[in-house]
Amino acid sequence: MTTYSFDDDSVVVIIGSGAGGGTLANELCQKGIPVVLLEAGKRQSQATFINDEWPSFEQLSWSDTRTTSGTWQIAQDFPTLPAWICKTVGGTTTHWAGASLRFREHEFRARETYGEVKDANLLDWPLTLAELEPFYARAEDKMGVTRTNNIPGLPGNNNFKVMYNGATKLGYKECSTGHMAINSRARDGRAQCMQLGFCFQGCKMGAKWSTLYTEIPAAEATGKLELRVEAHVVRIEHDAKGRASAVVYANANGELQRQKARLVAVAGNAIETPRLLLNSASALFPHGLGNGAGMVGKHYMRHMTGSVFAEFKDPVHFYRGNIMAGIISDEAHFKPDRGFVGGYEMETISLGPSFMAAFFKPGAWGRDFASVMDKYTHLAGMWLVGEDMPRETNRITLSETKDRFGLPVANVHYDDHPNDIAMREHAYTQGAAIYDAVGALKTHRVPPYPSTHNMGTCRMSRKAADGVCNSYGQSHEVPNLFISDGSQFTTSAAENPTLTIVSLAIRQAEYIAQSLKANAA
Amino acid sequence: MSDLKVSRRRFLHASGGLLLGTLMFTTGPIALIAPSQSWALEMHTLSSTLGSQLLLMIRRIYPHDTMEDAVYAFAVKALDERAAKDPSVTPLLLKGFAQLDHKSAAGWMKLAEAEQVRRLVEIQDSDFFKLVKGAAVNALYSNELAYKHFGYEGASFPKGGYLMRGFDDLQWLPSPPAIASPAAFS
User: Fold this and answer.
1) Residue A63: how many CB atoms within 10 A of its CB?
2) Which residues 53-92 of B are in CB contact (within 8 Å) with A?
């Protein structure tokens, strides 16, 4: 195994091993660039993943305390668990459902397309679909996305059958088993999906793409990667010129270590990434590293979400097979006559009894609640995911609460925008109509789960005053500091974010490699 | 026999009580996998009385009429484990049930079901109620017996997933066309 010394200042240090960090690490290592990859969690494997919801949640999730505020329902239902993301090698690519959707052309131009939206801070991306397309293509090939690269779509399960029939009755045209980074055929040394039904718990088949068993071992094989696990980063340091120079982290024993760095890339998810920059404030950067414009932590987005569950007379067994088994995209288009800007996708979802009880209607009890659980095998379900509005008041700040190292934890503040509320209402209504069309006995509006799609808190912008980084994720202020996760997103679009995070990481790796060669970063 | 001795000694050493029961449904999903019709939960901290009170309270909070007490006992066990870790739990439970009992001469457990529920609604914002409900919701629905009760098939990897075991066996709606849902094998 490759190891680098703490004093080796030629290495790129990447913080976080998920979709952004894990991909960036491999892309850089393939180009011969030395990388130290720091991951706060432990390394699991297909053998250690657990087919049981709560034990798996304890194994994979980021459960360190966070605090919440704002009018969003999460602050009521899950005040210390605003996000459902992972602390493990592979990050949230162990937990994600696999939906791999390209942004639509207009979604890179939200401000131009939607116009001024009151109490929102919309901005166009400093990047177009045409510029990102070649990287989307590379990401789809790397991840083995179905319905690309001659890979067949996945077979639909029972939950999809219900969705498809309802969608067709409503006249929807864009319903299929979608674009999934789950092998419909064995590919790239990974098995065909056997429809385990535990996509969220780490895929024991390895059929679902995760950096844990693709990018990271590929990077290790180059001899250029040193992965350090249980390395919890507490701050990024800089030199007298204001360039990032070292990363300080606590190891498994809680001892602080300092790794020198040629360049630092942060990919800790859109809550921890801004927290780390804010916690790295210094005399030179009094408001946080790279936060001269005051934009770090602002414009937190988490997608408009919600679920619709429906009870049927006959069994569905929706827990069998892919969690995100199918998608309806008809409502993802820009159709402002619906009373809101942006669009949303409808994607099947299923939960085991453990998570149903916890998330169906948090806090509920009594006969009404119990009767839904009694119908467990007769339920179908879908998740609604749509573009939410960036607002400077929705933000990550440092909380009064401290973690075990004495550092302020992240406070996540979110108020639903009227546009988010109007979209959710529309989506709930359409979701229920789909199930009613195929004879639902009863439909249920399920409130948002803790956020899995966290975005926007270090957004990319053309002008330094509007954001934190440029279109390559490079800090406007600190040239050798990069943002490599969903924090970069200028707007959230209606699409699940992982494919875009991976595509941006591939593009960023090329830029970093050129910059290192030219000594420009 | 040696197992019996060990468990008897452990029982004698434990400071907590014992919850005992028999299965209601001798042919139900639980009976099919249970080694015997009777069951026992040995508690480390809580008394037998508290155990019985909690079991009934959790039944009223999450009422599944055909669910065996043996499943509810998992939620009692979770509270017993909390009480063992956190010394403030037992006094909170004792105080909570004392208050529930205080309002009726015969005690809360002797009331009719509707009346028991009405009393619980009155205290649903109390720390006592939140503690019991919070522990119960995670434990009651997250164990093998509950999975059997609800018809959930649990871990699927050891059985090779559902690709060959009914992932698309729904018959009451037509199957989507291949363009929307291709076959698993070409």
Assistant:
1) 12
2) 61-64
